[in-house]
Amino acid sequence: MSFEKFVKGMMSLSLVTIIGMLLYTGIANDTAEVTTGHYAPEVTAAEVNNTVATEYCMPDYKTYESKDGWTVEYNSEVFEVEEGNDFVGFDYVGDCSGRCMVTVSVLTGMTQEEARDSLVAMWDGKVTTHEGPFSMDEKFAYWVCMESEVGEGLGLYDTAIVVEHNGKTLLFECVEYMGVDEEVDMMVSDELAMIIDSVEFN
User: Fold this and answer.
1) Are strands 79-84 and 70-75 parallel, antiparallel or unpaired?
2) What residues are paired with 165 via a beta bridge?
3) Under a CB-based contact definition with an 8 Å cutoff, are residues 72 and 55 in contact?
4) Measured between alpha carbons, how far is 2 from 65 in angstroms, rounded to an integer?
5) In CATH, what class is 61-201?
6) Pairwise pLDDT comparison (142 vs 125), residue with the higher score
7) Are 104 and 135 in contact (CB under 8 A)?
8) What is the pTM of this model?
9) pLDDT tens digits, residue range 119-132?
10) DSSP 30-60
11) Hey, where are the domains in the chain?
12) What pLDDT, in 10s, does the model give residues 85-128?
């Protein structure tokens, strides 16, 4: 290697070392400013100021309070409330694959066990049952779940939850129809689950 090439190589190495030290010192002291003559910002300040902000509206959640001592939260933009004698229905009116709803009924003259057995007999077929807590109050409940006869992930699904409150047997029922549009089905499932998960007793 010639002396001239050696000197040029050492000068290049020294320059890289000095720049590295300056960058490190600037980062450590938060005072160094590194600029280049070729940088052009992709978004100008004027473009940022002219950007239109997207507004997101929160769903209009409302509270339904029953005379039987329970409350739920529901999205009033996609549910219609239907009331009858010892019956309340939250009917989903948004885009869905079939009729989907949550209903609450008072089963007069029936115990929890009788209500559970009646559902099992009525839904003769693909039925699973279990016992467990229900709602934030962790009330003891019987769960009766009817699986779809069409196939996994399709058709009608029905979940019934039987609880006792204030001397009455209450039936919370979640009815959902699953189709081929997974995005729609997931949205409906979330709204139905939100109602069931929000149940409180007083």
Assistant:
1) unpaired
2) 168
3) no
4) 93
5) mainly beta
6) 142
7) no
8) 0.70
9) 999 988 779 999 99
10) T------TT---SS-HHHHHTPPPPP-PPP-
11) 3-49, 61-201
12) 999 999 999 999 888 999 999 999 999 999 999 999 998 877 99
